[in-house]
Protein backbone atom coordinates (compact mmCIF):
# COMPACT_ATOMS: atom_id res chain seq x y z
CA UNK A 1 0.00 0.00 0.00
CA UNK A 2 3.03 2.28 -0.16
CA UNK A 3 2.40 5.37 -2.18
CA UNK A 4 -1.30 5.33 -1.39
CA UNK A 5 -2.73 8.58 0.00
CA UNK A 6 -3.15 8.79 3.78
CA UNK A 7 -6.93 8.89 3.42
CA UNK A 8 -6.83 5.30 2.10
CA UNK A 9 -5.31 4.08 5.37
CA UNK A 10 -7.86 6.16 7.28
CA UNK A 11 -10.66 4.60 5.20
CA UNK A 12 -9.32 1.13 5.96
CA UNK A 13 -9.16 1.97 9.66
CA UNK A 14 -12.82 3.00 9.62
CA UNK A 15 -13.99 -0.07 7.77
CA UNK A 16 -14.98 -2.13 10.85
CA UNK A 17 -16.98 0.80 12.28
CA UNK A 18 -18.60 1.47 8.91
CA UNK A 19 -19.57 -2.18 8.50
CA UNK A 20 -21.00 -2.28 12.02
CA UNK A 21 -23.05 0.86 11.37
CA UNK A 22 -24.26 -0.41 8.00
CA UNK A 23 -25.43 -3.63 9.64
CA UNK A 24 -27.22 -1.62 12.35
CA UNK A 25 -29.12 0.55 9.88
CA UNK A 26 -29.47 -1.85 6.96
CA UNK A 27 -33.26 -2.04 7.14
CA UNK A 28 -33.52 1.74 6.97
CA UNK A 29 -31.15 1.89 4.00
CA UNK A 30 -33.28 -0.44 1.93
CA UNK A 31 -36.16 -2.83 2.54
CA UNK A 32 -34.33 -5.58 0.64
CA UNK A 33 -31.46 -5.43 3.14
CA UNK A 34 -33.85 -6.21 5.99
CA UNK A 35 -34.45 -9.62 4.41
CA UNK A 36 -30.72 -10.42 4.24
CA UNK A 37 -29.05 -12.40 6.96
CA UNK A 38 -26.37 -10.47 8.84
CA UNK A 39 -23.70 -12.53 7.05
CA UNK A 40 -25.16 -11.82 3.61
CA UNK A 41 -25.56 -8.13 4.40
CA UNK A 42 -21.98 -8.02 5.69
CA UNK A 43 -20.76 -9.60 2.46
CA UNK A 44 -22.70 -7.12 0.31
CA UNK A 45 -21.48 -4.10 2.30
CA UNK A 46 -17.92 -5.40 2.35
CA UNK A 47 -18.01 -5.73 -1.44
CA UNK A 48 -19.13 -2.12 -1.81
CA UNK A 49 -16.41 -0.92 0.57
CA UNK A 50 -13.80 -2.88 -1.39
CA UNK A 51 -15.05 -1.20 -4.56
CA UNK A 52 -14.80 2.23 -2.95
CA UNK A 53 -11.35 1.47 -1.55
CA UNK A 54 -10.15 0.37 -4.98
CA UNK A 55 -11.37 3.65 -6.46
CA UNK A 56 -9.67 5.61 -3.66
CA UNK A 57 -6.38 3.78 -4.25
CA UNK A 58 -6.34 3.73 -8.05
CA UNK A 59 -8.59 6.59 -9.14
CA UNK A 60 -9.39 4.30 -12.10
CA UNK A 61 -12.91 5.15 -13.27
CA UNK A 62 -12.91 2.35 -15.85
CA UNK A 63 -12.15 -0.24 -13.20
CA UNK A 64 -14.79 1.25 -10.91
CA UNK A 65 -17.31 1.20 -13.74
CA UNK A 66 -16.81 -2.57 -13.86
CA UNK A 67 -17.62 -2.75 -10.16
CA UNK A 68 -20.73 -0.59 -10.71
CA UNK A 69 -21.91 -2.80 -13.59
CA UNK A 70 -21.44 -5.91 -11.44
CA UNK A 71 -23.32 -4.34 -8.55
CA UNK A 72 -26.22 -3.36 -10.81
CA UNK A 73 -26.31 -6.91 -12.23
CA UNK A 74 -26.35 -8.44 -8.74
CA UNK A 75 -29.17 -6.18 -7.61
CA UNK A 76 -31.04 -6.87 -10.87
CA UNK A 77 -30.77 -10.59 -10.15
CA UNK A 78 -32.72 -9.84 -6.96
CA UNK A 79 -35.44 -8.24 -9.10
CA UNK A 80 -34.43 -4.65 -8.38
CA UNK A 81 -34.25 -1.90 -10.98
CA UNK A 82 -30.89 -0.30 -11.86
CA UNK A 83 -31.83 3.00 -10.22
CA UNK A 84 -32.08 1.03 -6.99
CA UNK A 85 -28.32 0.52 -7.16
CA UNK A 86 -27.83 4.27 -7.30
CA UNK A 87 -29.87 4.87 -4.15
CA UNK A 88 -28.17 2.04 -2.29
CA UNK A 89 -24.62 3.02 -3.22
CA UNK A 90 -25.24 6.64 -2.27
CA UNK A 91 -26.81 5.56 1.03
CA UNK A 92 -23.80 3.37 1.83
CA UNK A 93 -21.54 6.32 1.01
CA UNK A 94 -23.60 8.58 3.26
CA UNK A 95 -23.20 6.17 6.18
CA UNK A 96 -19.47 5.98 5.49
CA UNK A 97 -19.20 9.78 5.59
CA UNK A 98 -21.25 9.91 8.81
CA UNK A 99 -18.93 7.41 10.49
CA UNK A 100 -15.87 9.30 9.22
CA UNK A 101 -17.20 12.57 10.64
CA UNK A 102 -18.03 10.87 13.93
CA UNK A 103 -14.79 8.92 14.39
CA UNK A 104 -12.31 11.21 12.61
CA UNK A 105 -13.83 14.68 12.91
CA UNK A 106 -10.55 16.42 12.07
CA UNK A 107 -9.87 14.42 8.91
CA UNK A 108 -11.53 16.54 6.25
CA UNK A 109 -9.43 14.90 3.53
CA UNK A 110 -11.00 11.52 4.25
CA UNK A 111 -14.53 12.96 4.12
CA UNK A 112 -13.78 14.75 0.86
CA UNK A 113 -12.20 11.64 -0.68
CA UNK A 114 -15.16 9.43 0.22
CA UNK A 115 -17.63 12.08 -0.95
CA UNK A 116 -15.79 12.34 -4.25
CA UNK A 117 -15.76 8.54 -4.64
CA UNK A 118 -19.52 8.43 -4.07
CA UNK A 119 -20.04 11.23 -6.58
CA UNK A 120 -18.02 9.28 -9.17
CA UNK A 121 -19.96 6.13 -8.30
CA UNK A 122 -23.31 7.89 -8.79
CA UNK A 123 -22.18 9.32 -12.13
CA UNK A 124 -21.02 5.90 -13.30
CA UNK A 125 -24.31 4.27 -12.28
CA UNK A 126 -26.15 6.89 -14.32
CA UNK A 127 -23.83 6.30 -17.28
CA UNK A 128 -24.37 2.54 -17.11
CA UNK A 129 -28.14 3.03 -16.99
CA UNK A 130 -28.00 5.49 -19.91
CA UNK A 131 -25.84 3.12 -21.96
CA UNK A 132 -28.25 0.26 -21.32
CA UNK A 133 -31.23 2.40 -22.32
CA UNK A 134 -29.44 3.49 -25.50
CA UNK A 135 -28.77 -0.17 -26.40
CA UNK A 136 -32.38 -1.11 -25.75
CA UNK A 137 -33.61 1.82 -27.85
CA UNK A 138 -31.33 0.80 -30.70
CA UNK A 139 -32.59 -2.79 -30.48
CA UNK A 140 -36.17 -1.56 -30.49
CA UNK A 141 -35.56 0.60 -33.58
CA UNK A 142 -33.91 -2.33 -35.31
CA UNK A 143 -36.81 -4.63 -34.44
CA UNK A 144 -39.34 -2.09 -35.67
CA UNK A 145 -37.39 -1.68 -38.92
CA UNK A 146 -37.68 -5.43 -39.56
CA UNK A 147 -41.46 -5.34 -39.35
Count of DSSP H/I helices: 6
Question: How widely separated are the two ends?
Answer: 57 Å
| pLDDT < 50 runs, ≥5 residues | none
Helices and strands, in order, run as HHHHHH
Strand content: under 5%
Count of DSSP E strands? 0
Q: Helix share of residues? A: over 70%
Q: What is the makeup of the main sheet? A: none
| Rounded mean pLDDT score | 92
Using only C-alpha atoms, the radius of gyration works out to 17 Å
Overall geometric form: globular
Secondary-structure-derived class: mainly alpha
Q: How many domains is the backbone divided into? A: 1
Helix/strand layout:
Layout: H1 6-29, H2 31-34, H3 38-58, H4 61-77, H5 82-103, H6 108-146
Helix pairs in contact: 1-3, 1-5, 1-6, 3-4, 4-6, 5-6
Q: How would you describe what is shown here?
A:
With 147 residues, this protein is mainly alpha-helical. It has one domain (6-146). Helix content is 86%, strand content 0%. It is built from 6 helices and no strands. Helix 1 runs antiparallel to helix 3, helix 1 (6-29) packs across helix 6 and helix 5 (82-103) runs antiparallel to helix 6 (108-146). The longest helix has 39 residues, at 108-146. The mean pLDDT is 92.
Amino acid sequence: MSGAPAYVAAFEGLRPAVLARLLEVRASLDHAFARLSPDDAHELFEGVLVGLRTLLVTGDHGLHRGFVQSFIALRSADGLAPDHALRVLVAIGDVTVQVARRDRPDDLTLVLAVTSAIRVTARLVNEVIADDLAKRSAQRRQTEAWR
